[in-house]
Amino acid sequence: MISVATESDRALPKGWRWVKLGEVCENVQSGFASGQRDPEGVIQLRMNNLDTRGNFVWDDFIRVPASHQAVAQFRLELNDVLFNNTNSKELVGKSALFTGHAEDVVFSNHFTRIRTCPDALSPSFLAAWLNQQWLMGVFASICNSWIGQSAVKPTKLLSLEIPLPPLPEQKRIAAILNEQMAAVERARKAAEERLAAVNDLPAAYLRAVFPSVDQPQPKGWRWVRLGDVSTVNPSRPNIDRPDDEPTTFVPMEAVDAQTGTITASRLRPYGEIKKGYTCFSEGDVLFAKITPCMQNGKHAVAAGLADDIGFGTTEFHVIRPGPDITPQWIHSFLRQPSFLQKATEHFTGAVGQQRLPPDYLKALEIPLPPLPEQKRIAAILNEQMAAVERARKAAEEELATINAFPAALLRRAFRGEL
User: 116-138: per-residue pLDDT in tens?
Assistant: First the structure.
């Protein structure tokens, strides 16, 4: 018998009992694999057609020939429960209740179909319980694993014990869960929309600052080439520094793509990093030149460097501002999503290792206001971006709270607390 519950967890409300799952199921069947495809055939559900919220995904499925000999045997019926028996270890066990579809639907061997004894176990109750066990990590602890995949055999699944209230109580609990999970889904969607709106703000603020090429320039502004007001990839200076001197090192992962800042630089002995890495100075702009880091916003102003010197990944272009331009102005212009998307058209190199050449940055036309105006606008942008970051963290915390609610709700349900 498989059991991961503690003694306190095994205490049940009056009228409930522990039973093996196999004792209250009348039919358990794994699906079938089919190499045949037919665009006019029958929908076959695979592991990617079930999300982590117990919902079926109907926009990316395959079809198998309706004449396939297995179709009749594996056709889903109303209130069948599908258990994802094969996936990554973290995803094995996610389950869903089949509530019908306009077309016939069959299921692949990635699923185990469970039909319950109708006078003993509610399918809705079972689907919710299976997902609760999945969220608790029960299936990860009992699955067999091999390279890239894990699986739960039907014998292990049916040996699990389920806390079973009387059937009317199961249906009552399932109804409450359905209602509250629907409310959670609505709240999640609203929170995701708020987070998306917050994430769109930086691009909107930058668009408001920088005119496009076809727009008139504000008075006193002019168009310049970036290479005329800065040095792209300046020559490495002669550095007289002991090899054991702690020196700032910035790997790519140290740059936060959301904020465009260095958040996790390291100190390493100078002798370890003086060769084979990119050298930069305080106030230089670090620009990730490789895909997908470039598009993702892995760009920052080098600040807080030990002795004003730093080293980092060779996947940075270094842009050193001249006297007429501030690093903040360059950094803000280069972080515009519209610019980054346009820059991808100028990548060179093999797919997966494409990079933006330095000549593109040197020839890039950039609007340039007088220095006082650059600093004034940078101060405003700093305030706006700080407000965005606060709003983003609040929205992410709200979403995390909502996402944690289903697990808490399911724990209460199967302790008889609903």
Answer: 999 999 999 999 999 999 999 99
Mean pLDDT of 265-280: 96
Tracing tokens 């609760």 back to the chain, one arrives at 132
The DSSP bridge pattern shows strands 285-288 and 316-321 to be: antiparallel
Give the pairing type, strands 246-250 and 309-312: parallel
- Is the Cβ–Cβ distance between 200 and 384 less than 8 Å? no
Going from the C-alpha of 296 to that of each of 25, 71, 334, the distances in angstroms are: 49, 45, 12
Q: How far is CA 342 from CA 74, 256, 337, 346, in A?
A: 49, 21, 9, 8
Q: Strands across the sheet with 105-107, in order? A: 62-64, 42-45, 105-107
Quote the CA–CA distance of 383 and 39 in Å, as a whole number: 54
> What is the C-alpha to C-alpha distance for residues 118 and 80, in angstroms, rounded to an integer?
11
| Pairwise CA distance, residues 47 & 170, whole Å | 28
For the segment 325-384, what is each residue's pLDDT rounded down to a tens digit? 999 999 999 999 999 999 999 999 987 789 999 999 999 999 999 999 999 999 999 999
> Residue holding tokens 């979403």?
399
d(CA 370, CA 322): 13
Alpha carbon distance 288, 355 (integer Å)? 9
Query: Residue 321: enclosing H or E segment and its boundaries?
Result: strand 316-321
Q: How far apart are CA 150 and CA 143, in angstroms?
A: 6
Which is it for the CA torsion 140, 144, 148, 149, positive or negative? negative
* Angle (deg, nearest 10), helices 327-334 and 371-413: 50
Q: How far apart are CA 77 and CA 116, in angstroms?
A: 12
- Taking 70 as the threshold, does the pLDDT of residue 398 lie above it? yes
- For 281-320, write each residue's pLDDT tens digit: 999 999 999 999 999 999 999 999 999 999 999 999 999 9
User: In the chain, what are the helix, strand and coil shares in percent, each to the nearest 5?
Assistant: 40, 25, 40
Whole-number Å distance between alpha carbons of 97 and 95: 7
pTM of the model: 0.80
3-state SS, residue 19:
strand
Cα-based distances in Å from 178 to 173, 243, 258, 403: 9, 64, 36, 16
